[in-house]
């Protein structure tokens, strides 16, 4: 019984971290993700540890700390791949794609599709996994990110930042 209660507490803490991150309350999200990670490691729940690490990476990304974000996201991805957690791994790839897109300068190459190559590769891998998993909300999120990247790329290549018509 205690095992199940610990797992329920862990899930509640993970959801709290996700909610706080979506609300923009990054310090609170980070604290909840750190607590979730401590609980996951203590309980031997690797998949939940990976989820907590992804959340810690997303918190670091929200703070602009790309090195910390990459470390947590890559560690989460390794665990998810080892555990065969394909959908969670795809979600982590999407977070890594967002991190690389933010960390790498766009434009300058003269092509409208100058989004960093690694970010595009990760986005494509994630979207393919979402489609295979029939994860419609995740597909929609990946498509929205791709559209945002196309729009930003075009704006940055237009004279004076004016979007092309």
Helix-strand blueprint:
Layout: H1 2-22, H2 26-43, H3 46-63, H4 66-83, H5 86-103, H6 117-133, H7 136-157
Characteristic terms for this protein:
165 residues; globular
Report on this model:
With 165 residues, the chain is mainly alpha-helical. The protein has 2 domains: 1-84, Tetratricopeptide repeat domain (Serine Threonine Protein Phosphatase 5, Tetratricopeptide repeat, Alpha Horseshoe); 85-159. The protein is 80% helix and 0% strand. It is built from 7 helices and no strands. Helix 2 (26-43) runs antiparallel to helix 3 (46-63), helix 3 runs antiparallel to helix 4 and helix 5 packs antiparallel against helix 6.
Give a concise summary.
80% of the residues lie in helices and 0% in strands.
Low-confidence stretches: 107-114, 157-165
- Approximate shape: globular
Number of strands: 0
For the sheet with most strands, the description reads: none
Structural class: mainly alpha
Oligomeric description of these chains: single chain
The overall pLDDT average reads 88
CATH architecture level-2 label of the largest domain: Alpha Horseshoe
The N- and C-terminal alpha carbons lie at a distance of 61 Å
H/E element string?
HHHHHHH
Please state roughly what percent of the residues sit in beta strands, choosing from under 5%, 5-15%, 15-25%, 25-35%, 35-45% or over 45%.
Answer: under 5%
- The CATH class of the largest domain turns out to be Mainly Alpha
Radius of gyration: 17 Å
